[in-house]
Structure formats: structure tokens, C-alpha cells
């Protein structure tokens, strides 16, 4: 049986409620912190490293919550939200692969911001290239990612790391 390779907004909301991968497993955040509207492609192979790829989108509307507070009179999407979306997608990929545990961002290597998302934009596209998946005492996903707004790349992150934990008591 083949795995689902695209996910709608409703699918992602199910994941945020813990209904997609089962209780105690990878979960996306609920709105407003869910920074993804759909996953248009997810695979176990492909991508720059041949180990998996995720392409996801976020529709931009001038009334998104962060534009009202970041910054008053100069609205722009906070860069940390785009970075968080990339971590969200690496964790989602681990759950989609069938690994157990709750996802936690563990860091990244180099992050670069060279553009911005304004309220006039239409769509953000995230592309994640899985570099490595480790499943030992800790399940760990390592990936590189980019974020584009209306087709123009504006962020990049290398070495995005997300772990899955069956218990976060000592984390």
C-alpha cells in the first residue's frame, strides 16, 4: 500500500489534533502557529540528497495575525515563523515515515534571510530536502530547506534538526 503523498489543510488540522499519526506521535501545531496550508508533495526519495522531499504552501492574506503586531505600520511576517514551518515539515516527515514520538526542533546550522513576506504577497512555498534520518535511541531528521514567496527564494536553512521523543519529561 502506498503512502499518501499530498495533504490538505483539513489533513494538517487532523495532525495538529493528534489524529493523523496516532496519540503521542508527531503532531503539527494548531492555528495560529500552524504555518502550512497544504503539503503538495512528500516522498521518501527524491530531493537534493535522494532521501526525501517535502513541498508545502502557505496562503498569504493581509489579515494574518502576525501582520498586525510585527511591525505596527511596517507589517512583515517574522522570519522565525518561516523557520519554524521548516522544522514543522521535518517533524511531519518523520511521522509520515511511521516513526513514533513527539517532535521537537533541535536546532539548525546556517540560516539566511534575504527577503521578506509582506501582506501584499500571495503564497509562500517551502521546499525541504531530507539529508538523513536516524532511528536509534533517538529518532532524528536532518534536512536543508528553502522558503520562497511568490516564486522568489527568500530564506534558506541548512542542517535543520528535529527529534522524536517518546517522553519529553527530561527534555
Question: Could you explain the architecture of this structure?
Answer:
By secondary structure, the chain is of the alpha+beta class. The protein has one domain (9-165): Hotdog Thioesterase (Thiol Ester Dehydrase, Chain A, Roll). The protein is built from two helices and seven strands. Strands 1, 2, 3, 4, 5, 6 and 7 form a seven-stranded antiparallel β-sheet that branches. It is globular. The protein starts with 8 loop residues before the first helix and ends in a 6-residue tail after the last strand. The mean pLDDT is 96.
Q: How many DSSP E strands? A: 7
Low-confidence stretches: none
Q: Provide the gyration radius in Å.
A: 15 Å
The coarse silhouette is globular
Number of domains: 1
The structure class reads alpha+beta
GO molecular function, one term: trans-2-decenoyl-acyl-carrier-protein isomerase activity
Subcellular location: Cytoplasm
Family: Belongs to the thioester dehydratase family. FabA subfamily.
Protein name: 3-hydroxydecanoyl-[acyl-carrier-protein] dehydratase
